[in-house]
Amino acid sequence: MIVLVVELLAGRYVATSRYDREEAEWPPHPDRLFSALVAAWKEGEFGDEEGAALKWLEAQPPPRVRASDAHARKTVATYVPVNDTAIPQAGRKADSRAPSPDAWRLLPGTRPRKERRFPTVVPEESIVRYGWADVDSQGDQRHVAALGRLAAAVGYLGHSSTPVRVALGDPAELDANWVPDPTGPLRLRVPVPGRIRELEESYSAGERPIAAPAARYSAARRGAAGVVAASVFGEAVVYRRVDGPRIPLHASTVVTGAVRDALICHIEDPVPEVFSGHGDGGAPSQRPHLAVAPLANVGHDWADGAMAGFALLLPRETPDGDVRRLFAALTALDEEGEPRFRKLAMGRGGAWSIERVVGDAPLRSLSLGRYERPSRRWASVTPVVLDRWPKDRPGLDPASLIRRACAHVELPEPARVHVGQVSPILGVAPASHFIPPEGRTSLLRPRVHAVLEFEQEVRGPLLLGAGRYLGLGLFTRTD
Q1: Given this model, what pLDDT does residue 278 score?
Q2: What is the pLDDT of residue 90?
Q3: Domains and CATH numbers, the chain
Q4: Which parts of the chain have pLDDT scores under 50?
Q5: SS (H, E, C) the chain
């Protein structure tokens, strides 16, 4: 295996997320490193061997990655001079070396300043490792040597304020904690065949390069064999309540319904099916679409069940273009320079001021770890709305209907299902206390709490039943 080691010499990493200018990228995407290698090849005194090595590398499967946890710094606005302005050439001879009388315009103090933001993370370890495909033939070994020469010429990664040292590494020290997994929750952009040509064409046109395709990754599990099962939901965007009335978890659909309505108003028409939940002609979508999950103070001795915020959960198969449209709506600013999506009107429920959580969650209630990390045992935080009325017949009892609901979100069938009106999670109200959303008669069917036990580990988020897109049937791990 070829391993490239990136050392962050300043102990931090500055690079903007492709989707959100307020958020830092972490871990550094493999395509980010690949683009730096291509830049080193073009800028340095390298030849065909290095070019052939890059073409070989872009054809390899996505690499495994070793990157520690990182903590995001608060992003603040910085006003910096714009790039050098063009100097008028009128009256100058073509061969004249005399400075232009307008050269003073190049001085930073005379150029206009524009707002910039530099999202930054501070990793717990300043070393990031990438492990690509197995290297067998002698020709591949020559590629490795050429890539080593290119790696030594890379001076920074992401923003130019992130100096790095890149070198070949020992495969025995890779110890990857992020591995390619088609069901994984993390998207990392990776090089693919033709990526070098795309970078060259973008550079020649004076444009930013188009985004490379994203591969899905999941956290490596020690001792686990194969791919961990996961539901249809993947990426999450978390918002917290900044101000507004206290709303208990059993009234969560008041919030989640208002979030869906507000979000659709902020996305430019035509609203994609993955967000609206409606297909052609307005019929209900038969595909997984955006869900809104309530995040509440539950699961400990002092839990009071109050909602602290919510999470927007995207289906794993959401097209990259639709993801960009969502983040464009979430980050759009009004005339006062504030995010448009910062107020949530809930009718008789009042109104919330909301704020997106970037980086580490300020409250445990807003942390997604308990909802995402793999586990064999899960318990409902909000009750499952059964897809149909249960009957006293085999296959139509509540436990069987919940097994069927697991299949609807691509989960394996649980080995055991325990159904009742009470959840084992502290701070959660009985199922009968939860308020159905207004105007949705299909969600007036029976609501039950459940505990699921699987034979294998399952990765969340888990949302089951008829009300899953409004946050009903939300489960948390219990081990």
Answers
A1: 83
A2: 43
A3: 3-73+119-219 (3.30.70), 230-477 (no CATH)
A4: 88-94, 222-225
A5: CCEEEEEECCCCEECECCCCCCCECCCCCHHHHHHHHHHHHHHCCCCHHHHHHHHHHHCCCCCEEECCCEEECCCCEEEEECCCCCCCCCCCCCCCCCCCCCHHHHCHHHCCEEEEECCEEEECCCEEEEECCCCCCHHHHHHHHHHHHHHHCCCECCCCCCEEEEEECCHHHCCCCEEECCCCCEEEECCCCCHHHHHHHHHHCCCCCCCCCEEEEEECCCCCCCCCEECCEEEEEEEEEEECCCCEHHHHHHHHHHHHHHHHHHCCCCCCHHHHCECHHHCECCCCCCEEEEEECCCCCCCCCEEEEEEEEEECCCCHHHHHHHHHHHHCECCCCCECCCEEECHHHCEEEEEECCCCCCCHHHCCHHHHCCEEEEEECCCEECCCCCCCCCCCCHHHHHHHHHHHCCCCCCCEEEEECCCCCCCCCCHHHCCCCCCCHHHCCCEEEEEEEEEEEEECCEECCCCHHHCCCEEEECC
